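Review this today:
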Amino acid sequence: MREPRDGARTDNSKSSKTASSPVSSFPLILDIDDFKGDFSFDALFGNLVGELLPSFKLEDAELDGGDALPNGHIRAPSDASKYSQALVSPLFPEVEKLLSLFKDSCKELLELRKQIDGRLYNLKRDVSVQDSKHRKTLAELEKGVDGLFDSFARLDSRISSVGQTAAKIGDHLQSADAQRETASQTIELIKYLMEFNSSPGDLMELSPLFSDDSRVAEAASIAQKLRSFAEEDIGRHGIPVPSAMGNATASRGLEVAVANLQDYCNELENRLLSRFDAASLKRELTTMAECAKILSQFNRGTSAMQHYVATRPMFIDVEIMNADTKLVLGDQAAQASPSNVSRGLSSLYKEITDTVRKEAATITAVFPSPSEVMSILVQRVLEQRITALLDRLLEKPSLVNIPSMEEGGLLLYLRMLAVAYEKTQELARDLQAVGCGDLDVEGLTESLFLSHKDEYPEFEQASLRQLYKMKMEELRTENQQQISDSGSIGRAKGASVVSSQQQISVTVVTEFVRWNEEAISRCNLFASQPAILATHVKAVFTCLLDQVSQYIADGLERARDSLTEAANLRERFVLGTSVTRRVAAAAASAAEAAAAAGESSFRSFMIAVQRSGSSVAIIQQYFANSISRLLLPVDGAHAAACEEMATALSSAEAAAYKGLQQCIETVMAEVERLLAAEQKATDYRSPDDGMAPDHRATSACTRVVAYLSRVLESAFTALEGLNKQAFLTELGNRLHKVLLNHWQKYTFNPSGGLRLKRDITEYGEYLRSFNAPSVDEKFELLGIMANVFIVAPESLSTLFEGTPSIRKDAQRFIQLRDDYKAAKLASKLSSLWS
């Protein structure tokens, strides 16, 4: 917008003139530049009305001044001031000027729009013209580019064609050069072949190449090529035939060349080996490597590899071999122990491993194929050095003439074998870590012990049998020594010779198990396959079962012999009725001694049974912890071992059963003796002397109960579970039967019946400790039957109304009443028994 106010319009005279003049006389108010940049309508409007409304600016200043409230609003003028202003001037006097100004402004805006529209039209027209020219230019450029692309494609195709042609030419040239080179080499080889074909054994007229030490590698390569060609030709033509004279002649000629070449190769190989040995002594690894590389052309260098290994000091020095034996076995080989051998083998094998490791460094630096040389070296170590040592260390004993235990027995051989096998396996693993090529070190190590492992199970079983035999002889010797030290015990006096050394010992069985554990550990060491391991373990465990079964059965039989001796003593002093008092006293004293022997033998057998049970428990625990896990992987092995264990222990069970029966017989015999000796006729038929009846148990009952309490204490400790229950039940039943038969010898009156009832109660109270319900029931019925001696005759018929099962025994008891005949009870009770 143009600003006429800048300058002359600032004075008052000019302003008044402008105000009084018409609006049409105003210069241009708006300009195109007013709408450029950041356009603001408020600024445009302010510029338009600024001259006509000076109060507009004042109001703006007031809005910017101090009439503003603190909250930002304008303080409104008071009503009085408004009213006074309205009376002084018109409400809006500049409205006409503003209308005129706004109209002029609209006209100018329309004019400006026309100008702008014109300019826009011109610009569109110019742009259209330029765009047309630009499109034309682009079309021409595209045509030019397409032409360039076509030219480049033709050029690329041409270049490719030329390249392929050049490659073909190069291939032909290379092939021709190769053929030329081959032909040249063939000519050279034919010339050399003719030299070797001159005459058999004549190597003097050869080219300087074959005698020049500086060209040994080239000479060796050519000699090998000539030899291969000649041998191939002979093999292709086969044996000459008369019809092919030319071929035959050629073959004979090549045979001469082959022979000469063979001689030359042998001579060259020996010369190289000599140079190799000389360099080896001086540790000239570079020269050794050159010789080895050349020698690799002769049989792939096998001769050089084997020669190097064979010349190692560990294989040719006798002192080293003797030192090996001395290190392992010591100065006195016959007294070598497995522990000393183990330490010796560890030291020796470490030394061998270190030596092989050093050789490996040299081999890697010298030979083109170090893995093959290491294979030969490790194989030679195992087959020569280790085998020689094992032959000295492991001398297989004879199973026919077994060495004595003083010499170590078979156990020493087995322990030595285990130590040698384990340490040699460790050596094999160490050598495998050092490096041994494709050699099967594990299989080769196994082959060293193959002859020992084939018969290993038989040796292990024979060793266990030898140990068992030695232990039994040792126990017998100790027992005899103890008897000789303590003096002989007179059997005529009834003493039972049962020493502690003859008893079954859990310690001995534990020693059997320890032997077996050691044998099983060797089975684990020697057998890697589960089936073979299970077979060996089963055989070794069977030896243990046989040993324990035999040991327990023999121990129980010895304890049974004591019971038999006691029984024989009892029968020896059984006398008739017509003997003198002196003889009877002596017999009674002997019977007491026999009873003491019986009681001692009873206790001894119970101790044997208890230790047998403990021994069987040890075997079962050992089987569960150590044997079963080795048998379970093989179908049927575990079940077969369990069945074999039960069969092996059956003989001990049979001996224990027989012995327990003899124990019952021994106890019952003593009970019968005590009853016969202590029971008086007056115990159950006291005289009617007006004295108060005795309600105490009889002396015989007291002695019997005291004897049972004393002698059965060992049975309560030794027996367990069902065995204990069966034994005590049988003993209770036998005691019931003995008492019934014993009481049949006496006559009872009512006071005697009361005393009998007291005896029965005493027996019953003791027998309750047996925990045998059937025995308790029998003695309760005895208490009921004892009432037949107490009640009046007329009440007998009512006694058995609730218990008809005891009528038969009650009938026999009733016949023992002292008034049985006087009261004519037989006829009175006939109806009851019928």
